[in-house]
Write a structure and sequence with these properties.
The structure is a homotetramer. Chain A is α/β, with parallel strands linked by helices. Chain A is about 30% helix and about 30% strand. Chain A contains eight helices and 13 strands. Chain A has a seven-stranded mixed β-sheet, with helices on both faces. Chain A has a four-stranded antiparallel β-sheet with strand order 2-3-1-4, with helices on one face. In chain A, helix 6 (about 180-185) links the parallel strand 8 and strand 9. The longest helix of chain A has 24 residues, at about 250-275. Chain A is globular. The mean pLDDT of chain A is about 95.
């Protein structure tokens, strides 16, 4: 929603030193880019400078296809900067992975079809037929790859081929009940978003609501995070919680939790889509 | 604050069966007790019935010192009921354990001296001299028992003797940085309240804010719980959380967390003091 | 979700007096109804007793079609009790009113089609064509009644006739941007649920996010309430809030608010559908 | 806590235009100031640029007593900038105003005496004797000025004279139950912080908990704001909320609300003390 059309979005981090912010903003200003958004953050402990800026390209003197090169030459090497450059008119392309539960799927598709979420969703992938009817309602391709211990590698290879064909740029696991293998994670580094139905790092793994109920917690949570090779341990993008009490059951934990899950996942997806998430050492900087 | 003076407070649980609630309330009504509070809860999974009721004794036909016996005879055996009976005019007597941080101590003492918390606090126990000045401000005895691996058993024995002498009925660990030994826990079962500075069961043990920061969580928490022999695993009474983001540091986690800790601990203490907490199988029923 | 099939649900209130709870539960027990849920509340200020109970009818000795009469005779008159009796197998029938925004509509329809919300939705009514495509996706009748100052009374009469024909038992205004007239409110007393996009009673009326932004609040909210003849002043069923800060704009208030609105509205609808809301003097008792 | 000793803190706003941020940071860098904190915000609607920066003065080339003049000459006029300059070693001096309730007073004094709040509190002013014992506990001067309609102007004049004598730089109304007159507000513009016991703008004026209870809200709140001449309508610094339900009474609203009030007020005071609040058109920018 907030992505301006004719803009460039720069996400970067580098060792902090005097004058970086000034140098970058001056560079944009001098070349007649109009900064429409700038947020920066300094981690004084690690001594790292993070920045996200979005600037209008209408009068920008450097041709669009040269910006990356210029940035690389002028800043990346000098400041040991790592950066990503996006353009406001390039829509991210999402593959949605689901299993049997529909609440997150519905929430994302409702935002998508109403224009709230500025992405393309070329396909939905599942290990079950159960949610094909939802995909059909929204007119989106639905591909089933049943997964067993034996065929997992092979099936994931097919999924990746299909996603490549469809130009998928990131993956959303909308309560997809399968562990993603290292190969796919390597193919989509910090580009696979999962919703875990607990307040991580509490209740890692399967059946977190049952575990939370058994522990007698007074608050439950949900966590949207990037998938890494360590289970439920990737960089956290967003979390939220809800109160429970002794009157709640495992079933009502699950029920209350589903509202958390869908909102937290959608918020995490939105931040990713808006290029507002920067990962550094297994943690995220999430710009406003 | 809510404790009525001339009342009896009954906390009970038993296997659920038809007619218990009716039987108990009828018993109170027929003997001219006036119910001023009643809350009940049925755990349909475990099939257990829980109840808290508070009734005015002004016209109650059974003498105060016989109520327990009558209850035992008429209900406890018949329904396999476990119950506790308290009287509104018996103030719980708290021993406060502290180490070096003052925020929880101040919060409890402010509530106590302003009359908000209906207890007696005959003494403060610490393993350090640091907070004697706070105790002095509020005119409360401050006893230091320095604890080492070698003297721990001996020192705790002295603490227990002192608490017995002072008529202590429950203990509050207001950021007391020592593990309580099994002996003292056995002496005060479900009567030692601790504040843990994380959203349990995440970040059990020492330095939870550092661990939370390292994990990159977006929400921090605090947990008030009864102490059992397993570290940070006792029945949870109250939890609360606060948002953090990438701009926060370990220091700001600690700073924000202190507000959580003191409020959560005070709420847990208040519920305990009002006899509104019932422990069953390492979980709590906390009545309104 | 929680509604048991072969059960009766009793919602009641009456002046508080000794023995009511015992009398009602005894009556159910003696007639071999099995209480599967009971929650009660006493307002000691107004001296009113409120109760919701749900009991299994499998072995109940009183025929289903006589229960109401018996209750009336045995309790309602004696205790000046007002009560409603529902059966777990009677699904409430909802008319959904919408205008142009789809987020609440999608949320309710997703819950409905996935079986989470135990209702029938025979029709959607709107003053605009805009959301017909959503209704079509979900295969629900969509009726447009355009409303002008001149035709309002006439159009609402038609709407009411249509709803009567469809057996509608309650109405949900899912961001329906029209004031409902007194006639329709009288026809559906405490049976029209509205979502207001502010934390009532702040920002009554039109454009509450703009007003909230102008006031510089740090928290925004949404309110689910029953519609009465006084604008935005009916009994509140549910509220929730979200933090905002100086970086937010009116647009981001609206965006964040939409998540609040849909969750709050759906929770309010769910409580209503489960017969867990009792209205008394423009306030609600909402049972767990 | 976060205020660095040998630093300058610059708070500023001006019409937004290209290059401001670069100009200011370059100015600091070129003169060998080391930026330890920088946060900026652009209001694209009003086209205003806001910034807070804190820079170490150890090697700064401009003498401390000339910085303001240089800033004025180089930036303020050129950019129509309004700015405030503070130094990290200048402690704000607070006058605390109280009436009869002690919870906010205790909270602030506990933070103050434990070193958490980096201020001086030379005096407490009250219209009643009630809280003198608290001031005595903490060894702070306590001055009573009883206020009547007749003597108000005269008494406030004396209060202002006393505060001037004591070098007071800002005022905190810690549940002070008197309206402050225009004269005193003019003397301390955006320097008087009040805690209002509701979620403003709901329930302006007296007895907000009673009004909230009568309205049947499901959430209560508290608001920390600067005092302006319009009652409860000044710029909001901080708000927070807590859930209530039908079991709550006016008394429990008040009780739960007191925890909100003290935490919200202390957070607002802390932000002010850290020079992190910037007022613009009756709204605040509150930097992290």
């Amino acid at each position: 929603m907030n992505i301006q059309r004719n803009t460039a979005i720069l996400l970067m981090h580098c060792p902090d030193q005097q004058g970086i912010l000034a140098a970058v903003t001056e560079f944009i200003n001098q070349n007649k880019g109009n900064i429409v958004y700038l947020d920066q953050h300094v981690d004084y402990e690690q001594n790292v400078f993070f920045m996200r800026t979005e600037f209008d390209l209408t009068n920008f003197l450097i041709p669009r296809d040269k910006i990356k090169e210029y940035f690389n030459t002028l800043f990346a090497e000098r400041y040991q900067m790592e950066f990503s450059l996006y353009f406001g008119d390039q829509k991210p392309r999402m593959a949605l992975f689901v299993s049997k539960m529909s609440h997150c799927l519905f929430d994302i598709l409702a935002r998508y079809t109403s224009g709230e979420l500025d992405v393309d969703i070329p396909l939905i992938i599942s290990n079950h037929e159960d949610l094909r009817w939802v995909a059909d309602k929204f007119g989106i391709e639905y591909h089933v790859f049943n997964i067993t211990k034996e065929n997992k590698e092979e099936q994931e290879a097919k999924e990746m081929a299909l996603m490549k064909e469809k130009g998928v740029t990131f993956i959303v696991l909308a309560r997809y009940m399968q562990v993603i293998s290292e190969k796919m994670i390597a193919e989509y580094p910090n580009k696979i978003i999962n919703i875990h139905h607990s307040f991580l790092p509490a209740f890692i793994g399967a059946k977190p609501y049952h575990a939370a109920y058994a522990r007698g917690v007074k608050i439950i949570g949900a966590t949207g995070h990037y998938v890494t090779t360590e289970l439920d341990a990737g960089p956290i993008i967003e979390q939220d919680v809800a109160r429970v009490n002794h009157k709640d059951t495992v079933q009502s934990f699950i029920h209350k939790g589903q509202d958390l899950e869908k909102i937290v996942l959608s918020r995490a997806v939105e931040k990713h889509v808006e290029r507002k998430v920067l990962v550094y050492q297994n943690k995220t900087v999430v710009f406003n």
